[in-house]
Amino acid sequence: MTPERTLELADHCVKCGLCLPHCPTYRLTADESESPRGRIALVQGWLGGALPGSAALFGHLDRCLECRACELACPSGVAYGTLLDSARAHQRAHAGPLRRGAERIALEILSRPAGLRLLGYGAAAARGLGALRVASWLTLDRSRWLGPYLRLLPFLSPPPHATGTGPLATDTERTLNLFLGCVGRISQPRALEAATRLLARLGWRVRIPPDQRCCGALFRHNGFPEQADRLLAQNASALAQGPNLAIASACAAELRFSGTGLPVEEICAFLGRIAWPETLSLRPLGLRVAVHEPCSHRHPLGDTQAVYTLLGRIPEIRLETLPENAFCCGAAGNYLIRQPKMSARLLADKLRWLREQQPQILATTNTGCALHLAAGIREAGLAIEVCHPVELLARQLPAADVGAVTEPT
Questions:
Q1: What is the pTM of this model?
Q2: pLDDT in tens, 253-311
Q3: Checking DSSP bridges between strand 407-408 and strand 205-208, what pairing results, if any?
Q4: Helices of type H across 54-213
Q5: Cross-strand partners of 96
Q6: Quick one: CATH architecture of 175-273?
Q7: What sign for the dihedral angle of Cα 401, 157, 329, 135?
Q8: Between the N and C ends of the chain, which has fewer C-beta atoms within 10 Å?
Q9: What residues pair up with 407 in beta bridges, in sequence order?
Q10: In CATH, what class is 288-395?
Q11: Could you give the CA distance from residue 311 to residue 319 in angstroms, rounded to a whole number?
């Protein structure tokens, strides 16, 4: 997007300030430059030539979570997420080649299977070598970059291979593609297994297209739109023979709303609209389960009720809403690594509510949020499991239902 087009989007903002109370960073800092209105003004000043592209100005743009809560409050319909993505692309072009190259390499590692395997096996080796004790000592204040990585080590595993056992659905029309995402392969392997198991029990043949790639959100929100578009084009080819389901709500949002119009559905929404066998009775779960509503699910997708409806199928479950779900937890893609101090401040609000509620389980549909929340819960010494909603549903299947079904193509 050209600077002129970015400025056109910015001009839609009338500076009314209705977005301010909905912005997590403004809520914490009371700094106008940390609000949507303030950031739009900074973009206008910079791209319009009135302000230099300084480290201070870029710092305010970098600290935006892109949760997009402001868009719901905006009476002028400002496309703030699109605007900020464009501003960050101009910002990356403004940066030196070394910094731009280093950021690109870091994102490539997170988004490629080879890089994910390296991270997964590295995490397993680090656990064996006692690196987690180092992580507990190496606080965010001591290490700007290494500390945030190390705190996530307990939740990373080598990606599982796409294999499974169990009866296949006989109706070839009831075949769907499962989009795995990138980081989810090493942080939520149990969710992927649970999804295939549950879908097979509901009569669906699960196929995992081998040519699928990262959804592209990490690149788009970090100022590399060309790479994000290339990944989208590859996924459009891999997922051409739908229907398609995504485990992570952020992936579903990126694939559906970033210009390709890919027919990708978030898995909870799909499970909520299809017919379930009348003979399928889930086992009771007499536990308190709090539901976290990720920004990616609340805003682009807009349907968090499906999670509550699905989990409500489990007898005796005690469902609760995590208070202040309207505010971001601080994960926001790789924000928890890029901006660890602000991310930790946002997480602290979630941990405060979790200490008060004391649920046994916290359910969330976003991969990054699950990682961030699980790390914070562990550090706070709370006995709360973090999992994807499909994990709970699969666990409560009748005991006779075993195995998962995948069909590599």
A1: 0.88
A2: 999 988 767 889 999 999 999 999 999 999 999 999 999 999 999 988 988 999 999 99
A3: parallel
A4: 55-62, 69-73, 80-94, 97-111, 113-128, 131-137, 146-150, 184-187, 189-201
A5: none
A6: 3-Layer(aba) Sandwich (3.40)
A7: positive
A8: C
A9: 207
A10: alpha beta
A11: 8
